[in-house]
Amino acid sequence: MRKAICLTTALSSSAALTVLLGSGTASAAMAMPDTCPTQITVSIASHSAYFLPGTTAFKDGRGGKITVSVTQAKTLSATLSASAEVSVSDVVASAKATVSKSVTGSVAVTVGHSYEHDISAGKYGNAQYGSWGYKVNWERIKENGNCTSTVLSEGTATLPVSSVGWRYWETSS
Fold it and tell me: Domain 35-171 - what CATH class?
């Protein structure tokens, strides 16, 4: 759609140029190509922060202190709701360019990381180890030869980043 807007602007400018310079330049100005390169791209339509859990959630309390540690390794991988036309690597590459350079297809959860947190009186403390990543909405787009674009497919993906650690929250029960 952006290319179509740019072409319209260019044609409007050509028409203005024709009026200003006369018909001698008009044929040169109007000799612009009416086609655009045809290509297929994967684009990230929107994104939001998302926690990808790597372990079971730990719960302790009422009140006091929660102490947790990771003693196992796990790999968190990007997931994709898609047809066969889009690969995880296409969405990861697009998100790496437009969302964050730290987006990756998978990340290993580190073994041996411990965490301690005070729990508010009367509450339960919860902790879970994982990766802070992104949930993205992606589109596979065909740029057509007539300078329009067509959405071929779309979906969502959860993408981990290389940052891992504990997420903490409290509950009443």
Answer: mainly beta
User: Could you tell me the CA-to-CA distances from 82 to 90, 103, 138, 171 in Å, in that order?
Assistant: 12, 19, 10, 35
In the predicted model, is pLDDT for residue 164 greater than 60? yes
Euclidean distance between CA atoms 103 and 132, whole angstroms: 10
Ranges of each domain in the chain? 1-32, 35-171
The predicted model gives 68-74 an average pLDDT of 79
Distance of CA 38 to the CA centre of its chain: 24
111: amino acid identity, one letter: V
Tokens read off for 42? 């994967």
**pLDDT per residue as tens digits for the range 98-140:** 999 989 888 887 667 789 999 999 999 999 999 989 999 999 9
Strand bridging mode 74-77 / 106-109: antiparallel
Looking only at the bridges linking them, the beta strands covering 106-109 and 164-171 are: unpaired
Mean of pLDDT values over 11-16: 33
Q: How far from chain centre, in Å, is Cα 37?
A: 25
Cβ burial of 68 (10 Å; 0-12, 13-18, 19+) is buried
Closest CA to 130 of 68, 80, 70, 60: 70
Rounded to whole angstroms, the Cα distance separating 81 from 72 reads 28
